[in-house]
Amino acid sequence: MENRKRFRKTMFKLLHKDKTSKARLGLLTTAHGKVCTPCFMPVGTQATIKTLSADEIKSCNAEMLMANAYHLYLRPGEEVLKKAKGIHKFMSWDGPIMTDSGGYQIFSLAALRKVKKGGVEFNSHIDGSKHFMTPEKIIEFQNILGSDIMMPLDECLHYPVSRNNVEESLKITFDWAKRSKKAFRKQKAENRRQKLFGIIQGSTYLDLRKVAAAEIVGLDFDGYAIGGVAVGEPSELIHEVTEYTADLLPEKKVRYLMGVGTPLDMLDAIAEGIDLFDCVVPTRNGRNGQAFTWNGELQLRNAPFKKDFDPIDKKCDCYACKNHTRAYIRHLFNTEEILGLRLVSLHNVYFYVKLIEVSRRAISENRFEEFKEEFRSRYKK
RNA sequence: GGGGAGAUGGCGGAGUAGUCAAACGCACCAGACUGUAAAUCUGGCGGCUUCGGCCUACGAAGGUGCGAAUCCUUCUCUCCCCA
Fold first, then answer.
1. Do residues A282 and A290 make contact, with C-beta atoms less than 8 angstroms apart?
2. Pairing state of beta strands A24-30 and A12-17?
3. Distance of A181 CA from B72 C1′ (whole Å)
4. Domains of chain A by start residue, with CATH
5. Residue A265 Cβ < 7 Å to strand B
6. Which of A65, A168, A220, A276 is the most buried (most CB within 10 A)?
7. Residues A154-158, mean pLDDT to the nearest whole number
8. Nearest-angstrom CA–CA distance, A156 and A108
9. Secondary structure (DSSP) of A36-69
């Protein structure tokens, strides 16, 4: 009991605050190890960072991964994951894993679901079968997954959306948060090392964000997430909402900006006081031929790279940059060879993790703002 | 030597008198992607353009017709069958 209490208390330790921005350095302790923050989590919705093996993910220096409870609930399902003894063993990743609830699928699979008070009615995108997801069920399932950090079911709205709709939606998200917390408390003793975050919604209405933050923080979660951001709104709005909401969160708890983002979005968000990120961009865009570098973005399928025998990024130490050229990777994309997708995914994840690593150093040296602006000035879109 | 079929934009291949700068693929050229229904999706793809059009085009040259990728004549080439 004592141990458990101490573990709860020290889940996040704020180590340092940058003197030129709101950026912070922290240490996050999970059941599967400690993680320095700010931290970027590659997204492995289906218990796999698409195209990359666990070894390759490790070679990118990624520490914590993200997976999706809704997707894993549909496939392979509860029974398999129970028998596999949880997601870590199933996917052979012994580092920390966060699982999202399926709140984002309320947004992305809008045509296939109906939000009701009790939960969400989903038609499976796989076979059309009907499923009723409740906050309790999602917590129980994440309990079976054994993820280090779980997210409660929430409603992620699209942009733009009317104030009325946001108000109605916030009631549901708050109700679900309370029920999630209650279900979380009931979980089995051996799984008590799992953590549960609260999610602040409210779209772009700052006063509604304020109310939502007060309500969710009032429930006392292990960490707080800002959700419903980067769902189609312009970049300035993303950051206005992020900064405003981050300021409403307790300083000593970890802050997670859900689904963000591009390299520039992440740096801005770090300066706004965010500690955790996840995003599909490095892997999805990587599979579509876009590479991220210290000088900007490259569309590697484009003709100018046909005879470009430089690595993706001369400054990068990843396997792809150490061993292969842009011309070769372009050729792989051109011929639809799988290795191309893998190399760019690997490079992008490596780059994202490195960018955050370098950001941490800049924060520790109290020059984050300068670092961020220098990066921006060199970064070509 | 005799008989038959056919030649369409970078390639494959529709179209067989007007609504054709020509379907559809492929190739090529761009763009998008932010808690992943995504190795996906969107757009462009003869030339010029003041974006209204204009010019050049369906093997070549002639012809019929208001009008031809589409019909006729000749030529060139390709493929198939028989000797």
1. no
2. antiparallel
3. 88
4. 2-280 (3.20.20.105)
5. yes
6. A276
7. 96
8. 9
9. EESEEEEB-TTSS-TT--HHHHHHTT---EEEEH
HSE-CB for A316 with a 13 A CA cutoff: 32
In chain A, count H helices and then E strands: 16, 16
- Catalytic residue status for A100: yes
User: Would residue A310 show up in a list of annotated catalytic residues for this protein?
Assistant: no
Q: What is the share, in percent, of chain A residues with pLDDT greater than 70?
A: 96
Identify residue A85 by its one-letter amino acid code.
K
Reading the block at residue A78, the tokens are: 């509860």
Q: Tens digits of per-residue pLDDT, A200-218?
A: 999 999 999 999 999 999 9
Average pLDDT of chain A is 95
State the DSSP H helix or E strand holding residue A72, giving kind and residue range, or none if neither: helix A69-74
Peptide bond into A96 cis (omega under 30): no
Q: How far is the CA of A331 from the C1' of B6 (A)?
A: 38
Q: Any idea which nucleotide's C1' is nearest the CA of A279?
A: B34
Burial (CB count within 10 angstroms: exposed 0-12, middle 13-18, buried 19+), residue A115:
middle
Cα-to-chain-centroid distance, residue A216: 19
**pLDDT, average across residues A241-262:** 97
Write out pLDDT tens, residues A85-126: 999 999 999 999 999 999 999 999 999 999 998 999 999 999
Amino acid symbol at A130: K
